[in-house]
Amino acid sequence: MADPIRWARYRWQRLIATEGRECSSNNSSSKCYQSSKTTGKHRIVIPCLGHFKEEYEKVSKLYMNNKIRTTRYTLLNFLPRNLFEQFHRVANLYFLFLVVLNWVPLVEAFQKEITMLPLVGVLTIIAVKDGLEDYSRYKMDKQINNLVTKVYCRKEKKYIDECWKNVNVGDFVRLSRNEIIPADMVLLYSSDPDGICYIETAGLDGETNLKQRQVVRGYSEQVSEIDPEEFSSRIECESPNNDLSRFRGFVEHSNMDRVGLSKENLLLRGCTVRNTEAVVGIVVYAGHETKAMLNNSGPHYKRSKLERKVNTDILWCVLLLLLMCLTGAVGHGIWISRYSEIPFFNIPRPDGKSSPPALAGFYMFWTMIILLQVLIPVSLYVSIEIVKLGQIYLIQNDIDFYHEKTDSTIQCRALNIAEDLGQIQYIFSDKTGTLTENKMVFRRCSIAGQEYCHEENAKRLESYQEIDSEDEDSAGCQCGSSTPTSKCQRHNCRAVCEPLNRKSLNQFSGSYSAFKKQDEASDTCHSGDMAFSSPIETDIVPDTQLLEKFSQISFHSYQQSEEASSKLSLETMYITDFFLALAICNTVVVSGPNQPRQKMRLSSLSKMPIKSLEEIRQMFQRFSVWRLSSSPLPSVKESSSESPSSSVRKLSIFRMKLASPTLDGAAQRVSEPHNTDSPENSQVPGELHVVSVAAGEPNHAVSSIELSPIPKLCYEAESPDEAALVHAARAYKCVLQSRTPDQVTVDFAGLGSLTFQLLHIVPFDSLRKRMSVVVRHPVSNKVVVYTKGADSVMMDLLRTASEVHSNNSEIEEKIKERTQQHLDDYARRGLRTLCIAKKVMSDAEYTEWLNHRFLAETSIDNREDLLLESAMRLETKLTLLGATGIEDRLQEGVPDTIQALRQAGIKIWMLTGDKRETAVNIAYACKLLEPEDRIFTLKSQSRDACALVMSKILEGIQKNASVKNKPSEKLGNVSASPSTQARGFNAGLVIDGRTLEHVLHDSLQNIFLELTEKCRAVVCCQATPLQKSVLVKLVRSKLKAMTLAVGDGANDVSMIQVADTGVGISGQEGMQAVMASDFAISQFRHLRKLLLVHGHWCYTRLTNMVLYYFYKNVTYVNLLFWYQFFCGFSGTSMTDYWILILFNLLFTSVPPIIYGVLDKDVSAEILMELPQLYTMSQKSVAYLPSTFWITLLDAFYQSLICFFVPYFTYCGSDIDIISFGNPINTAALFIMLFHLLIECKSVTYIHTVVIVGSILFYFVFTLAVGATCKTHNPRSDFYWIMEKHMTDPVFYLVCLLTTCIALLPRKNET
């Protein structure tokens, strides 16, 4: 065959078929891949058709259908399962034990129904909450399961409407545009002539940019839609798993030919078909076996640090309860033993004998447990949940977290760890997209060892930065209005400077607004709808020197450069291949303006409605550009002599005013060089050329290139780096016009339209840190590999001097040396660097590599290793073309935020995949590192060397710290925090990914952590996602520190999930980090208020509420305990059982909840101005062990006052027990509520209403019980008690005196 590529593929298929037949004939099970042997390990998919009926029924029984159920309960199992789950809580089991214990007659303390009331109330509330949540999931499941899709019916021989829940593995499903994919299925047909299906994966990872999926190889060439009846193949693939980035398997045809399957052939459930009229696929995973459902593990649960501490203190309360009950049991036994005869109140047993004192004391132990059960706060857990919901509500409704540009606010995805925000000690932050904007702007490049600084483009970016800063202040100034505001006028005048006066500016703004309104209706390609397409990223001003060289490239000169070896011809080849690599070495999806989010085909370019030059001329007339100067317009020659700086300033400002994509595209076409002799440009007046030459392009460059206006194309990239490089190539007229699975078309100035045959794409991965495309070059007809990647790996892949022709070896070595210098300079400037390289392969080399690649693609076991090996085999002996420097600007407010967080005692680590120089530069820019800091770089090739270097660094830090810490030894403890050091010496540590591998070894972990504790900041560069998560886990487990991880991309997910608190930033890299996080914010600066204000508030409020719960429960239980000393430890209560049980459940439960939600110990303004206050919550000052015991002592004191003041008041009187207990009960209510009022740092009307309401509710309830207890309570002791006391002045005096004495120490302390 003429084409060696087709010949190689043909030979490979024949080889596979022959081996398959030999295996089947020889029954060589050891060498032949037998699917029957691996049924449990792999999945066999048989089509649901007549000729596969028996085999289908046998295999399909093992697979799940497509019906999903995310509910936890059914109508039958709701009650038993919910109770079973609730009784997993120790507190509920404890109260269940008390209920059962109270049914034992010998130890009964209350009425049986009364004891059940608290437990039943708590269980009912939680059951209702769980039931409502589950019912909402049930309705969602029902809605999803009843969605309709087209499924092939073998009886009717056509596609029929079928519910999702009835779809099974092996069914053929037909989908149309904008339909959601019901199950994971292999793509067998697409209406796209190139066999492409565009999907949107927002339902899985939040990314709205389109992804391409490809029809299985061998089916894409079919003209008509696939007929399921003629499908005679079977599919074997891996078992269901949750890896979204991997799919392994193959299609085996009836002739034993096999075709490999990958994730590019798989349509995942939950994705949406876009820009494709019809697709057909066969279901391989259904229902809960789909990758989407396997990844849906439900809400992740994290236990907060405070919750763990509360559980510990509850155990202390249990021990206190046991001690009090043991005291009561011993006291009761001693009391009984003092009577020589059987006392009258001791009821004998049925045999007439009474229980001995020891046995009576044993029974009394359990009676006392029932009586004093209130000591364990049964309602505390419910109250904590309610308080946390209230705190989350306040956080989500904070207007300061709203980001207008993205129209997003904070999301609180974890509802139970809000208080952990107030105890963070370490923050692990990604760099790109977290500290920076993730708007990649092309800044510099180096080609063939020659650097091109793009100074004009740098000035454009400076002007953008000025305008962005002013736009933030003006809150989106609407210059599109008919009358611009004065702020807009000042802003524009400063940007345009001297050439523009105020009057002409008003005309410019007014004309622009009118044109914008008119044009927005007809143009649909809005850059704002797509990621990585803001004007600052797309409007690139070419470098004049490079543009001049670029203009000299022609088809003839490029052909000569392929053959010649002169310096000029080599430079031509390098420049051409460099920009071709930028344009095609990516996975960018090309779409047109009038067909948004759709593939742009080369044949349709001529039919696109592009504005004519006459319309552009009219537009400029409407803008009144020629009136900006009073002098006549100069000629092209005169304009070309204008200084580049002023010319570019005019052009850059002019471009920025064209906010709409239509105007932006028009201005971009105008600013490109035009041939003045061409027929199209003959109609354009002179003033149009003034603007184009003002871009700093030389006159001869304008006249030497004959170009048509660049069509408006929209690029959808998976990463901002790809978008930046494609837009950079486009600025130099190397325009990516279309992309199909088999070819890429580039419109290259001087070479015309070039269509590359796309042979393979080797995607980027974090291990290789590069990507490659294999194409057949249309000019040379050779197989060319274009590779781009990190310089840390690319430089090692370049061919050596011995592998280069003798006449070019010296040149390539110089290029490599100069490029490395440029890369280091770019990194010092804080730019992201990429190396661009290429490799030319012979047909024989490519055929050999293709055989290995096919073997890897058709494997199921060890597929990733084989694919990696084939990629490594391809990416060797590369020729370095050049390098790029891309700027990623810091987000607004990042330096101030980092400075505030460090003042708050939080250590910040920056974990990034960028190279060291870039990471350090960004660290200085965001004030993570200060100029006076001493930076230690940890870089070593072996573990022993790494240990030695760390020891030396540690010794140096300790020596400097010991010398300079002496004057500051007298500082107080408040200033000592995890991140504070001696003022005279601050250290920073920088470590790279290779050294991290040694550092994370078990033998070096301790010394590494000791070193990091001595450092002010740590910067880890070139770190992999796995290393990030291991570092977080190491600090969390070894140092027992509270950690927070913040990131914005999929590579930060593992780090976010490992940390105590994970924060995702909803940036431009999808929503995977957000979906895995506990809290999601839109800007890094929001972290400042989230931690310093809301974190402090949440922790302080909740700890104070928890301590108050312990206080009030211990206080009330002690009242019962003190009474036992006067009733022979008989387990008698001096108050009504209803009031006793409901006292903590109703009368005193709401005020602490309001206190926990609304209290503010310090205002937000002060917390933001004084970050040092954060250390109070960080060090758990409000909830130290000593604080807990002091609270219990306070409770003991107040209970003594509350009991003995009424006791001595009524001592010697004939008052009955219940009448004695009523003032004690009432005084206890006043003491507890006023105690809470004293504790409140900010009292609002809500606090007042709740406290007054609780008091009124208590009196109403006691009056009602006293009036009606005869009818519902067999014990009528409480009858009319409160009514009598309401008329007794002594009662009021006792309550007032008791309350004042009990709260006197608290008042003095306040």
Automatic annotation (TrEMBL):
Which BP terms does GO give this entry? phospholipid translocation
User: Which reactions does this protein catalyse?
Assistant: ATP + H2O + phospholipidSide 1 = ADP + phosphate + phospholipidSide 2; a beta-D-glucosyl-(1<->1')-N-acylsphing-4-enine(out) + ATP + H2O = a beta-D-glucosyl-(1<->1')-N-acylsphing-4-enine(in) + ADP + phosphate + H(+)
Reported EC number(s) for this entry are: 7.6.2.1
Quote the catalytic residue positions: D430 (4-aspartylphosphate intermediate)
A Pfam family hit: PhoLip_ATPase_N
**Domain P-type ATPase C-terminal residues, every copy:** 1074-1306
The record's Gene3D superfamilies line, in alphabetical order, gives: Calcium-transporting ATPase, cytoplasmic domain N, Calcium-transporting ATPase, cytoplasmic transduction domain A, Calcium-transporting ATPase, transmembrane domain, HAD superfamily/HAD-like
Indicate the segments forming the P-type ATPase N-terminal domain, all copies.
Answer: 54-115
* Primary site of residence: endoplasmic reticulum
A GO cellular component term found in this entry reads: endoplasmic reticulum membrane
Q: Which cofactor does it need?
A: Mg(2+)
Top-level enzyme category: translocase
List where in the cell it is found. Answer: Endoplasmic reticulum membrane; Membrane
Family classification: Belongs to the cation transport ATPase (P-type) (TC 3.A.3) family. Type IV subfamily.
Under what name is this protein listed? Phospholipid-transporting ATPase
Q: Which gene encodes it?
A: ATP10D
